[in-house]
Design a protein that fits this description.
Rieske Iron-sulfur Protein, mainly beta, three-stranded antiparallel β-sheet, four-stranded antiparallel β-sheet, 12 strands, globular, 51% strand, disordered N terminus
Amino acid sequence: MADSAPSAYSSRMAELRVGAAAEFTEGDRTIVSTGSEEIGVFLHQGRFVAYANRCLHQGGPACEGVLIGKVEAVLGTDQAVIGERFSSTRINFVCPWHGWEYDLATGECAADRRRRLRRFDVVERDGDVYVVV
């Protein structure tokens, strides 16, 4: 009689190889496919992050857009806004279809922080980078 209990193997998630960690430099990204969906993998501030490459707005390729510093207000001594600048530490990526922006560190939508792209775990092992799917 066959054992009906699930095996330890079936409870583990699959890992999709992205590439060699040494091939990435800060700000690099690559898009990998699981067959059913695409995943954008970025090297950001020395660590890898991965998100579904599907914009929340209309399903565009969110992870394929430009990387740009978050727009920050510049305040005077009286706390009045005297200008704006691009952040050098908070980076967004912009969906090329309609300009929806996402925080690179969190996947949160810049216009509504309650919404975010699906995030995938990333592991480094033996010099290679893998996305857990």
